[in-house]
Amino acid sequence: MSENYELGSQLREFLRGLVGEHGGVAWGPRVKLAGLKENFEGTKVKPYTVTPGGIDNLALHSTDVFTVPGRGEFSVDFKGYFKVARDHPTSTDWTKFELFVNIIDLKLFGESKDLGEIGVSLNPDVLSSGQIFPASSPQGSAKCRIATGVVFDMPQLGLSVFNKEPILLMNEHVTSIPPVDDPNGHALLFMLPLFDRANPSGKAVAHLTSLRYGADNYLSEAEVKSIQTRSVG
Amino acid sequence: MSENYELGSQLREFLRGLVGEHGGVAWGPRVKLAGLKENFEGTKVKPYTVTPGGIDNLALHSTDVFTVPGRGEFSVDFKGYFKVARDHPTSTDWTKFELFVNIIDLKLFGESKDLGEIGVSLNPDVLSSGQIFPASSPQGSAKCRIATGVVFDMPQLGLSVFNKEPILLMNEHVTSIPPVDDPNGHALLFMLPLFDRANPSGKAVAHLTSLRYGADNYLSEAEVKSIQTRSVG
After folding, report:
1. Which helix (H) or strand (E) holds B16?
2. Is pLDDT at A19 greater than 50 in this prediction?
3. How far apart are alpha carbons A190 and B168 in whole angstroms?
4. CA angle A30, A31, A37 (to 5 degrees)
5. Subunit contact B24:A18, Cβ cutoff 8 A
6. Burial B211-223 (b: 16+ CB within 10 A, else e)
7. Minimal C-alpha gap between A83 and chain B (Å)
8. What is the pLDDT of residue B9?
9. Residue B109 in contact with residue B79, Cβ under 8 Å?
10. What per-residue confidence (pLDDT) applies to A10?
């Protein structure tokens, strides 16, 4: 390889260090938050209808399966919330709209007999972004994908791990926007590596092998505050 | 959000600009190339056997399906090669080894009636990295995953597009290392966004909706040189 290539690589490595070991990445477009209204408990959603832009505060649950080398496989149930910024749609036609989303906050809590308490939070070093795709007919399902970056804190193991490849949350059976009380979400993944925040350039210390999730009801402001201030460990 | 958070975000954005719009990301560990022998035509592989580290030059073919908004869906056949650096395995036991790989070069060429000639090359701004997982029994299949970043050059459309989320090449039926003459590869993806290199922060200009691939025979040095020097447009 040429000296210029080498120098370029070294410069990139150096700057990458400044940006943060995790990369500092946006997986898709950033949704402008200015002018988007926050939606809480009491918000109604209509099926098969393109909802105007907003910021949804929704309860969230998931079941994640991890493998940890030398320790085995563990299935953990999580509960918490996520805050999703939905941009204004390009059309109100259920079969034509284009709509971008960002997850701007996420907190989940779970407990495992073997791994102890686990907290999940949004990784601030990546922009978790996604899109809702229109249905092919007026009573058909829309489809959703969100590339998500999180941190799993496992205080009992003294570990805090994160994903470098997105956890692709998806749902091919979306009948309302947002998909409230919809248990059909899953992550499209295969042995997704999770890296130690204390040694981010090292090899994976765990793998995420399965994730199923559901978006639940709108939360009150007080419920959101209560979840936001909770922590593990 | 606090002023410190805002300042941190702005600083990250600024530095990200210096690093390169594409992020400058490593999706997994870097394989050290020093001491790894390049393997060409004539190299033999034994089934169900953990091969010592090396750099494989293999023919590669794929069938990719793209959707381009306003233009429709297109299936394109590609042929070319990839160069894969395989690290030294941690064990010679087919049921226990751990082995990391990087794709360090990739070139594919295809042609579509509608989209014209298309060239695929490795994205130099990301480290395409992966792992081969051991089988659960001596005659069982190993599994492979490689998170891959590429650039699709479409000169007829005046477009050069790239993926920000990895294209996850995978194969759950690996019976030799490397998987020579193995047509069983596919990418695990759902509407993977492809971004315009001329406007990387904009919305996706195409989506990759399906990718199937096969790793073929070892190539001669002359064949590799010939593919490396070919270009589209």
Report:
1. helix B3-19
2. no
3. 9
4. 155
5. no
6. bebbbbebbeeeb
7. 14
8. 52
9. yes
10. 52
Low-confidence ranges of chain B (pLDDT < 70): 1-24
Alpha-carbon distances of B208 from A172, B68, B170, rounded to whole Å: 16, 9, 16
pLDDT tens string A56-93: 999 999 999 999 988 899 999 999 999 999 999 999 99
Sign of CA dihedral A184, A185, A188, A192: negative
Backbone dihedral angles phi then psi of residue B19, each to the nearest 5 degrees = -70, -25
Contact of B18 with chain A, judged by CB distance below 8 Å, is answered with yes
Query: How many Cβ contacts (< 8 angstroms) between chains A and B?
Result: 91
Taking an 8 Å cut-off on Cβ atoms, the answer to whether B165 and A166 are in contact is: yes
A145 vs A124: CA distance, rounded Å = 19
The alpha carbon of residue A19 is apart from the nearest alpha carbon of chain B, in Å, by 6
Q: Please report the ipTM that was assigned to this predicted complex.
A: 0.88
**Burial class of A146 by CB neighbour count within 10 A (0 to 12, 13 to 18, 19+):** buried
The pLDDT, as a whole number, for residue A23 is 40
Measured between CB atoms, does A190 come within 8 Å of chain B? yes
Mean pLDDT of A158-185: 96
- Which pLDDT belongs to residue A226? 98
Distance from CA of B192 to the nearest CA of A (A): 9
Check B190 against A24: CB less than 8 A apart: no
Q: Let me know if A212 is exposed, middle or buried by CB neighbors in 10 A (0-12, 13-18, 19+).
A: middle
Torsions phi, psi of A201, nearest 5? -90, -5
Q: Mean pLDDT score of chain A, rounded to an integer?
A: 91
Exposure string of A97-119, with b = 16+ CB inside 10 Å and e = fewer, is: bebbbbbbbbbbbbebeebebbb
Picking from A16, A145, A203, the nearest residue to B24 by CB comes out as A16
How big is the CA angle at A96 (ends A93 and A98), to the nearest 5 degrees? 105
pLDDT of residue B17: 42
Amino acid identity for residue B127 in this structure: L
If we measure between CA atoms, which residue out of A119, A190, A189, A194 comes closest to residue A161?
Answer: A194
pLDDT in tens, B176-222: 999 999 999 999 999 999 999 999 999 999 999 999 999 999 999 99
65-124 in chain B: CB under 8 A from chain A: 98, 100
Tokens of B123: 């994205």
Handedness of CA A19, A21, A22, A28 (dihedral sign): positive
